[in-house]
Design a protein that fits this description.
The complex is a heterodimer of chains A (182) and B (685). Chain A has a three-stranded mixed β-sheet, with no helix packed on it. In chain A, strands 2-3 form a two-stranded antiparallel ribbon. Chain A is built from five helices and ten strands, in the order E-H-E-E-H-E-E-H-E-E-H-H-E-E-E. Chain A is an alpha+beta fold. Chain A is 16% helix and 23% strand. Chain A has a domain of 115 residues: 2-Layer Sandwich (Alpha-Beta Plaits). Chain A starts with 6 loop residues before the first strand and ends with a strand. Chain B has 685 residues and is of the alpha/beta class. Chain B has three domains: 193 residues, Rossmann fold; 202 residues, Dimethylsulfoxide Reductase, domain 2; 114 residues, Barwin-like endoglucanases (Beta Barrel). In chain B, the strands form seven sheets. In chain B, strands 5-4-17-16-15-6 form a six-stranded mixed β-sheet, covered by helices on one side. In chain B, strands 22-26-23-25-24-27 form a six-stranded mixed β-barrel. In chain B, helix 4 runs parallel beside helix 18, helix 9 crosses helix 13 and helix 15 packs across helix 17. Chain B is globular. Chain B starts with 5 loop residues before the first strand and ends with a strand. Classes of the chains: A alpha+beta (182), B alpha/beta (685). Bound molecules: iron/sulfur cluster (3 copies). The site of one iron/sulfur cluster has 11 residues of chain B, from helix 1. The site of one iron/sulfur cluster has 15 residues of chain A, from helix 2.
């Protein structure tokens, strides 16, 4: 498929303070039910974090595996999921390395981050990106340019080889630290 | 999807929080759909913290109180829904009965704190003042010692504009963790860093903020003043201080210098290193940063002064900042808190009782409240009103509280949730959330002022503190004409309007207060506070030597005061957590609240006690015990354990008669030394 864009995320681990504004802003915007988290902030070590959602992969495994063809890849690179087509077979859950599809036990359907595509249409940023107080999380178009000095992955991020996620990183840098020696 | 129009209101988060974020609420047919940060606030810039984004959950949580409730017997959990009419009648009749019995309202007391820091929440104080003499608390539990330290040194606690931290060359965050408590400040710090500034964090705990620092220095709690004094000594001995500034604009440098010189540098260095736990290399590195990088902003957190020597420690840090001249430099300065609230008349707080008679009220120490109340006779206190506070979780001397509560005739608690305190009350009145009331909020940190609009109808039968004051007054006066002089006919808007004196309008560049409906406004005069180099001290200079402090029986100069010692080996720190403020927000189901169940301990301390990660431990001292799960981590220093406030098993059980060294000057009483608490831990419960 000819992709006009490949929208994705730029995550600067050095700036992320693990505040979870992105995660809460996503729930605030998308009204996801309890237990369904399209975006999650997790610690990779004490005091460093990852904020992960669906990565709108170049080779989406979810799309390949879904018997109902509920997943589709748009021309802007966003991987959509059609709630109406999903029949709750849960096949997409284990194949996604990023735990992006989340299962709603009440509706018995999978759902995931859809890059706030309705907001994009109104020229608004995705809710998580708008909420990030440190600009650790940003939107990029990987077809346009790869941010200078960014890398494909950082420690703690799941395997990228299988699905080629649309995310780039700046790793965190540790300063000088003097701990009390006992 | 319903097509009804979405209306956007301006609100502001009223938590006791540095950020005081302006927000926009999206309301459809009286229902809060979602919130967003208000981009018109130049400080919060359209962002909120996770708690702020969880506003719909805060408003519509199934845990929220809906109706007035009566509990009988007290603490039994047997609740009965009653009407407002019944509740107010019962309270009013009790007030009148006690008044008849004692010929005054001294048997009636209230306890209120920072649950909602909006100005109209002073309706609680206004309502009690209107009764004439009663029993009222005075004091501030959490930041008064530091405030006094600033008053002795500068004449007043006045923050530089925190947005100007972006122009610093060196930013020292001393005992403050903005990644948890002031996320909106991070962007201004990062801006400075992008321009080459260095960020230093000094903290006993290796916090998220510390992990981001260019230089992190771990220090033993309560020893901060000693490190500051050593740095001052190094700068003085190396001639690396601002001599002309010190000469012209400071007072009492000689005695301070003599004190610094009373030790030989090498001896002092090894002593300080030993006591603080900071290695000499780190001290030299920090000293040279201070000598070479100007302007420097230094922000000292509230936790640091929650110690028996907290005020003194802050005075030592202030002295260091004065020595380098940074306190007057644009882009530099000593940060603690601002005093913008002082510009406002605070009409509700200052409302005069009949003939000013509330001035004859009995004042009790807010920080020793339960003990003080128990000691009152002629008349004893028999009715207690609690609003904006959860003392059974957040005050000290909880055992005293329990005996106090068992002695009272009537306990009324106004809250949004069934807190530990509400659960021990006779009557619980459901409080409005900030979305359901008009209010006005300013920050004690940044310089923005935000109007809070009533965006939603009340949640079930919830009412604001002001509305309750109006209705209870009407009830009292109906039963006993003229009993209270509270102007109950005034609406929230009337009270708001009264706050905008010509001076306030001018300070914020407003024609009229309604302009705030178009967005938050910033204080126009947000220059560095001491740019004119005149201070509000008696000498008009920065005071290394404070006769004012001496008069209040404190050391005149920033001498180090040794922390208290204890036979319990571990020091318990209880800083704020990311997802809660004090005991608030523990209900938000959007988040797991693991923090409430854990205690963090250094591996060496755990090994000594044979404790393994995840073990259930009892944390105890002579006053009581709590149970937590242990998390073994090198982020806390040896000899220190960290637990978080709030929850079902509050750690304040372990805090008894802990008072700071300062606070009484400005707030009437010293604050609580929440961090000067010692415990032991053992496996089990
Ligand atoms: S992150 Fe997972 S759900 Fe999203 S596109 Fe990739 S494979 Fe599919
Ligand atoms: S909002 Fe930004 S800084 Fe906060 S956790 Fe998310 S990515 Fe990190
Ligand atoms: S709790 Fe603090 S940071 Fe969060 S929304 Fe409220 S004021 Fe802002």
């Amino acid at each position: 498929m000819l992709m006009l864009k490949q929208l994705g995320f730029l995550f600067n681990a050095d700036l992320c303070i693990g505040c979870r504004s992105c995660e809460a802003a996503c729930i605030n915007e998308n009204k996801t039910p309890a237990g369904v988290r399209w975006r999650r902030v997790t610690p990779t070590s004490e005091n460093s974090f990852l904020s992960i959602s669906c990565n709108h992969c170049d080779s989406p495994e979810c799309f390949r595996i879904c018997p109902q063809k509920a997943f589709s890849k748009q021309r802007d690179g966003i991987v959509m999921i059609d709630n109406g087509l999903c029949d709750g077979c849960m096949k997409c859950l284990p194949v996604c390395p990023f735990e992006a599809p989340q299962f709603d036990l009440r509706q018995r359907k999978a759902s995931k981050c859809i890059f706030c595509h309705e907001r994009l249409k109104q020229n608004l940023l995705p809710a998580c990106i708008e909420a990030c107080p440190t600009e650790a999380l940003q939107m990029i178009d990987l077809n346009k340019e790869i941010p200078e000095g960014s890398v494909r992955t950082i420690p703690g991020f799941p395997d990228i080889l299988l699905t080629k996620p649309s995310i780039r990183f700046y790793p965190s840098q540790a300063g000088k630290r003097y701990f009390i020696q006992d | 999807m319903s097509k009804a129009k979405i209306v956007i209101f301006r609100n502001v988060c009223p938590r006791n929080c540095y950020n005081t974020c302006s927000l926009l609420s999206y309301v459809q047919e009286g229902k809060l759909l979602k919130v967003a940060g208000d981009p018109q606030n130049g400080y919060t810039q359209g962002k909120l913290c996770a708690k702020g984004y969880a506003s719909t959950e805060f408003v519509y949580s199934p845990e929220r109180l809906r109706f007035p409730l009566r509990q009988y017997p007290r603490g039994s959990g047997k609740w009965q829904r009653i009407s407002w009419e019944e509740a107010l009648t019962e309270i009013a009749e009790k007030i009148l009965e006690l008044n008849q019995l004692y010929g005054s309202n001294l048997a009636i007391a209230y306890n209120k704190c920072s649950g909602n820091i909006g100005l109209l929440h002073y309706a609680v104080e206004g309502m009690f003042n209107s009764l004439g003499a009663h029993t009222k608390p005075r004091g501030n539990p959490c930041l008064a010692a530091g405030q006094d330290a600033f008053i002795y040194d500068f004449g007043k606690a006045l923050n530089p504009d925190p947005e100007k931290m972006a122009d610093s060359k060196l930013i020292i965050l001393w005992g403050v963790n903005p990644a948890y408590t002031a996320i909106q400040q991070i962007k201004f710090i990062n801006k400075a860093r992008q321009k080459g500034a260095k960020m230093v964090v000094i903290d006993p705990i290796f916090t998220v903020t510390a992990a981001k620092a260019d230089l992190y220095i771990q220090i033993r709690p309560g020893t901060d003043g000693l490190l500051a004094l050593l740095l001052a000594k190094i700068l003085v001995e190396e001639g690396n201080y601002d001599q002309s500034f010190v000469l012209k604009h400071t007072w009492g440098f000689e005695p301070f210098l003599n004190y610094l010189r009373s030790n030989n540098l090498q001896d002092f260095l090894s002593q300080v290193s030993h006591v603080t736990g900071v290695r000499p290399e780190a001290i030299w590195e920090l000293a040279s940063l201070l000598a070479d990088s100007k302007p420097c902003s230094l922000w000292v957190g509230f936790g640091l002064q929650r110690n028996t020597n907290g005020g003194q420690n802050i005075r030592a840090i202030n002295a260091l900042m004065a020595l380098t001249g940074n306190i007057c430099l644009p882009g530099g300065g000593a940060y603690y808190l601002n005093s913008n609230l002082d510009y406002f008349p605070q009409n509700l707080l200052n409302h005069q009782g009949p003939g000013g008679s509330h001035k004859q009220s009995r004042q009790v120490d807010l920080n020793n409240f339960a003990s003080d109340l128990l000691n009152l006779k002629d008349p004893p206190v028999r009715l207690l009103w609690i609003a904006n506070r959860n003392p059974l979780s957040q005050d000290q001397n909880l055992n005293k509280w329990r005996s106090l509560l068992s002695k009272l005739d009537l306990i009324v608690t106004v809250d949004l949730y069934m807190t530990k305190t509400a659960a021990m009350s006779d009557l619980v009145l459901p409080a409005a959330s900030h979305f359901e009331e008009d209010d006005l909020n300013l920050s004690y940190w940044h310089h923005w002022l935000t109007l809070n609009q009533k965006a939603l109808p009340p949640f079930f039968e919830a009412k604001s503190d002001l509305q309750i004051a109006r209705e209870l007054t009407a009830k009292l006066n109906k039963l006993s004409p003229g009993f209270s002089n509270f102007p109950f006919e005034l609406t929230a808007e009337d009270w708001l309007a009264k706050e905008f004196t010509p001076q306030v309008l001018k300070l914020y560049g407003l024609q009229n207060w309604e302009e705030l409906k178009d967005g938050p406004r910033k204080l126009l005069q947000a220059d560095p506070p001491w740019a004119g180099r005149t201070f509000l001290t008696p000498s008009g200079k920065f005071e290394f030597y404070s006769a004012h402090a001496k008069k209040n029986n404190l050391p005149a100069i920033a001498k180090f005061k040794w922390p208290q010692t204890s036979s319990y080996p571990l020091r318990l720190l209880s800083p704020q957590y990311l997802l809660s403020i004090h005991s608030q927000s523990g209900w938000l189901s959007w988040f797991e609240h693991d923090n409430l169940g854990i205690v963090k301990m250094h591996p060496a301390d755990a090994a000594k006690r044979g404790l393994l990660d995840g073990n259930q431990v009892k944390i105890f001292n002579a006053y009581g015990s709590i149970v937590r799960k242990i998390q073994i981590t090198a982020s806390v220093p040896p000899g220190v354990v960290v637990a978080y406030q709030g929850g079902e098993d509050p750690l304040n059980t372990l805090i008894v008669n802990a008072f700071t060294d300062m606070g009484a000057n400005q707030n009437g009483t010293n604050n609580i030394a929440f961090y000067d608490v010692y415990v032991e831990c053992a496996k089990g419960r």
